[in-house]
């Protein structure tokens, strides 16, 4: 069987540094100070900044670094990735793209992951010296997709066409380099301009929402099964 | 198709409060004090207590609450669990069993999860009032299995008989109430007395180690596919 190289894109991810509007909020100031950092350099995190986030636009979609953390751990630890058949990208809600070397071993500990992503937002690469494992660039989802040049683009969303995960895996595996886009935000919908980029939009669980990490792990598992890897 | 009820057991989990031998270690004392807790009441965490853990027996298997956290998030968020076909248990390296109501919504944030498990170790149940979602009891893996009475016991380990995940799913789905045991420790092997409890020991990835959450998510995904849920 031809072995595709799957391009997994976590899109509109709830991953950003604290926005300027709330730098002065006591909840932000306090968490920054405790860590010896400036409000501008720490990640927005609903578990710490819930009160401060109330007035932010699209607040319900923001401030959840844990979604990207767990989803990336699933992607990078997956047999599919270990067999060299996966590329993983993050597009953030603030229109940054993160390029991740497949051999990257992310911190398992959440607080260390947060520190690493803060460094990434500060200097654009991690580690600072030598070959970078993670690289950050300002980039819309459209430009990210133009850059990675998938042969087909599938987006998973609750309001998509109902489709079994296995059928999606078969469709992806027929391609040389397909992209699959999974939303990495806690609530709400994709932006219309991003949804338009897909060749097909599918729903895998009867229109009910699933956690991002569940979608990622289940898709990669069914793909690995289909390709005979597990 | 008959719908089995799968009993997932995360075993010998690297989840415990700081052991007495290292209560006085500066790294332990410092992290306890910063959180306004006693050394006895905080979780052992390698990301904080690495230095202090050096002399502990079985140190390489201990102090990784993140493994249980991510694996439980995968289990409880899975379509299999949401369809009512999964029961999830944790057996810890210190021989405690954690009983988890399937509808439990665990904290997504690691630090909040740690606080919740510390409360569980302190008072034996969470939440403290009303119907408990999590219950903790001193219990060996053997007694836990006697308590939950599976119709068959499959254990997954690197040195097991090679078996495709799909074949394991088919074997499990033939049973009414099978248990599947996954190690929730970072390195090393199961204790011999625990391994002996299994009817079958299988290896799913060519004898190579996988992260606990990867094993859990991939097994649950293949089961959900086999049962027509996703």
Automatic annotation (TrEMBL), chains A, B:
InterPro entries found in the cross-reference section? Alpha/beta_knot_MTases, Rbsml_bgen_MeTrfase_EMG1/NEP1, Ribosome_NEP1_arc, tRNA_m1G_MTases_N
Instruction: Give me the segments passing through the membrane.
Output: none
**A Pfam family hit:** EMG1
Q: What are the entry keywords?
A: Methyltransferase, Ribosome biogenesis, RNA-binding, rRNA processing, rRNA-binding, S-adenosyl-L-methionine, Transferase
Q: Which reaction does it catalyse?
A: a pseudouridine in rRNA + S-adenosyl-L-methionine = an N(1)-methylpseudouridine in rRNA + S-adenosyl-L-homocysteine + H(+)
Enzyme Commission number(s) from the entry: 2.1.1.-
Site feature Interaction with substrate rRNA, where: 64, 105, 108, 112
The annotated site for Stabilizes Arg-xx falls at 66
Q: Does the keyword Methyltransferase apply?
A: yes
Q: Which SUPFAM superfamilies match?
A: alpha/beta knot
| Gene Ontology BP term (one) | rRNA base methylation
Question: What Gene Ontology molecular function terms does this protein carry?
Answer: rRNA (pseudouridine) methyltransferase activity; rRNA binding
State if rRNA processing is listed as a keyword.
yes
The record lists S-adenosyl-L-methionine as bound by 183, 188, 205-210
Instruction: Relate the assembly described in the record.
Output: Homodimer.
| NCBIfam families xref list | PRK04171.2-1
Give the family from UniProt: Belongs to the class IV-like SAM-binding methyltransferase superfamily. RNA methyltransferase NEP1 family.
Q: What does this protein do?
A: Methyltransferase involved in ribosomal biogenesis. Specifically catalyzes the N1-methylation of the pseudouridine corresponding to position 914 in M.jannaschii 16S rRNA.
Q: Can you name this protein?
A: Ribosomal RNA small subunit methyltransferase Nep1
- What is the organism field in this record? Hyperthermus butylicus (strain DSM 5456 / JCM 9403 / PLM1-5)
